[in-house]
Amino acid sequence: MNKELVVSTVEDNVQIALLEDGKLMELHQQSVDLNFAVGDMYLGKVKKLAPSLNAAFVDIGYSKDAFLHYHDLGPHVRSLISYTNLVSSEKFKSANLKSFRKEEMIQKDGTMSEVLKPGDPIVIQITKEPIHSKGPRITSEISIAGRFLILAPFSDKVSVSQKIKNKAERDRLVALVESIKPEGFGIIIRTVAEGKKVAELHADMNYLMNKWQQVFKNIQKRKAPAKLLSEMDRASSILRDNFNEDFVKISVDDEVFAREMKEYLDVIAPEKSNLIKVVPDSDIPLFEKVGIERQIKQSFGKNVTIPQSKGAYLVIEHTEALHVIDVNSGNITRNSNNQEESALNVNKVAATEIARQLRLRDMGGIIVVDFIDMTNNDNKRKLYEHFKEEMQKDRAKHKILPPSKFGLIQITRQRVRPELNIKTVEENPNALQKEVEAPILIIERIEQVLKNIIENKGKNVKEISLHVHPFVGAYLTKGFPSIRQKWYMKYKRWIKIVPRESYKYLQFNFLNKNNTLHNESN
């Protein structure tokens, strides 16, 4: 699998696309001056307690107070509070925790009033960005993520990612980290650390300790509410969490971003820093130049065509409480001799696309998927296992339940940022009060219909004519080879193009000697 990262700056926004084998898998949008991002560390002040919720509201400088639940305090919160107070008053003058005396850990089932009171300063980290009318969600169980390791102050525990299965490798990594770990800090060993040598782990440890040193200095000189440490920009954080040998190219249209990413690559993989290519500024935006804009139009919206499915598609609906995804087979199962086998095949392809859609849109909360009905329990199990395997590529925490009696699969997925919602319909030039599918997709839609006609009715159809708006007809026949010529080479059928001045811009019909094969009017 070849991975590519494309970073484009448009005015005050940064767009980041992660491609896998040329296919858009993740899309992120970030304001250049974005505050309160996941991972940011702040010195906050407790505003008030909420005993009924066993929580506190903390002022971190946002328009709405951040929400801190007791279960998000972390067991070492008393040590963190003590350290913060001592550093702020200059009674403790070191980022090193070797000589720091830890406080007693809090109880798992305690109450917030036993730990905090209004006015207390506390170091917190953002776990969920502000969404709609809600303020940020925060934790005081702070950590700093690196490429291979995660640093956890005030904990002495060394743990290993559960995705590293080999016991000998797990033991090796723990032994190496124990030998280089500073006293007073815990370490979580990430999955990408598997097989790494001590020098690479040690370099990452030094990087994390430099970050903690920055936190220490900011606690010394700043008053609440204040930012102590910024999470790295989204592009670099994607590299941190995804970068491996599969990356073949990183395209950036901004010199500043390119320099920042190169500096980070020089730390985690200096031999790969030449992957970053600065694309010269031009009249055409980078996303449009490399074909990402077209993929965005195809991938967002209520109806999503399932690639390689010969006509199947998803219908994605958003409600106040949950997301609903319906899998439609089109005309596939009706033309199949074995509908159960066909349903399984379509469902598996749909599951792959749904897993991609959840990552792409960053959909969170409860998601209910209505797959095509199957009666065979073994096929239901195969679909469930396939879906779980596809979802393993998703870094967001999630849980998938087996199919219910009604054939529904339920998913819960962590959401830490506002869901990405891109409008793909556009104003209809012939009816100002009506919206239509993005015109950029019309050619793909026409070819999909043509493909279905030839595959399902090919032997019985001798002449096929396509009636379209004159503008669309001209586009299909221009150039060499034209789109019509490409269809001829692909499907071995010559399609007659008939311009129709009475047609709406996105309207088209496929006819066979006056018999309608397909009628689509927008």
From TrEMBL:
Superkingdom as given in the UniProt entry: Bacteria
Q: Which GO terms describe its biological process?
A: rRNA processing
One short Pfam name that applies is RNase_E_G
Specify whether Acetylation is a keyword of the entry.
Answer: no
| Assigned keywords, A-Z | Hydrolase, Magnesium, Metal-binding, RNA-binding
Which coenzyme or cofactor does it need?
Mg(2+)
A Gene Ontology cellular component where this protein is annotated is: cytoplasm
The terms under GO molecular function for this entry are: hydrolase activity; metal ion binding; RNA binding; RNA nuclease activity
Q: Which positions fall inside the S1 motif domain?
A: 37-141
Keyword Iron carried by entry: no
Concerning CDD domains, the annotation shows: S1_RNase_E
Matching entries from InterPro entries are given as: NA-bd_OB-fold, RNA-bd_AU-1/RNase_E/G, RNase_E/G, S1_domain
Name under which the protein is recorded: Ribonuclease G
